[in-house]
Known about the structure:
alpha/beta
Amino acid sequence: MKTYFVTGGAGFIGSNFIKYIIDKHQDIKIVCLDKLTYAGNLANIEEELNNYPDRLTFIKGDINNQELVEYIFDTWEINYIVNFAAESHVDRSIEDAEVFLKTNVLGVQNLLNIAKDKWDLGEREYRNDVRFLQVSTDEVYGSLGKRGYFTEESNIQPNSPYSASKASADMLVRAYNETHNLPTIITRCSNNYGPYQFPEKLIPLMINNILNGKELPVYGDGLNVRDWLYVKDHCRAIDMVLEKGKAGGVYNIGGHNEETNIKIVKTLIKELDNLLKENEAYKEMAATKDDYINESLITFVKDRLGHDKRYAIDPSKIKKEVGWEPTIMFEDGIVDTIKWYLDNQDWLKLITSGDYKNYYEEMYLDR
Ligand code: NAD
Ligand code: TYD
């Protein structure tokens, strides 16, 4: 029986990962450590906490807390650390980078150091039963021109404080692997979309604004390109890399799905309108929104500082070494995502009102 130490598991990708592995591997235990920052929401894993009290433990805390992380290692026999915990929003890092360095760099250093001390690492061969997986991003490679793809050998050239902090963590992970023989893996994924994404990121922000008839702020000319991957495909990739990836390895994860921001926003308007008009389940909701779901909501606003022009992943290494390929087409994934937000208006409203903090923390931590 393996034990996974999942950090940041109340956030977007971390919560999707917990859902994925708790279902896929019936014999594992999971310890989730999450600070519950503005981006952490216990509602994201409420069902799993209720359904699997013996297999999933939630601990509210900071990855920088040495005593707490040591306690986790002393209490459970940790096999896998999967570090999702991070400050993840580029715009926030432009406003104030400090917390990005604290969590994304120093927090990772704390986890690495404790893993190195607590796991009995040999000097030559890697231990097969333990792995430290750092969930990184393609943004560490910087920006591409019109052509080309990021491979694992591309230069690390981060442009935003967020990507610089993630790149710094990658360097530390590499150093702990080289210096201390820590069996690490770094995954660098492209932009994710799907259920439970905090509505500050492009796709959920636009869905929420369309539903509320608010302006859709497109940065610059809207022609920046991102390479979109459905979150479940990312979670499957991490699961497979933990089992089949080489210690010390770096794996890019992406699904060859490049699109401009403006096209994404127009697709969201079209698909949302279709769903509301054609799906019986949303008839009532549709009646109140008919008049304003159209492209007139799009507003071009001042560009993001240092806005990376294009990201695109070459995923051939993970395909060859691990056998992973994406399974969910964007056309299907985006409709499922919109449906999820339509079906989970309460989740969205609790966040936009701010009530999600008090409501869920009290509900869970008072038990
Ligand atoms: P998110 O912002 O939705 O979630 C981050 C989680 O980490 C939250 O639950 C938050 O409470 C927690 N957290 C923050 N600081 C913490 C700390 N000091 N200690 C403990 N917990 C803390 O982020 P996400 O989109 O789910 O991203 C998860 C990871 O994946 C990040 O490391 C991010 O860099 C990486 N990533 C994200 C994307 C994407 O498109 N969202 C793409 C590639 C890589
Ligand atoms: P985002 O979801 O913040 O992810 P990242 O910056 O990590 O790629 O943004 C995705 C793209 O959408 C990025 O090019 C910036 C753009 N964007 C907008 O045009 N308007 C918005 O309101 C937001 C949040 C993003």
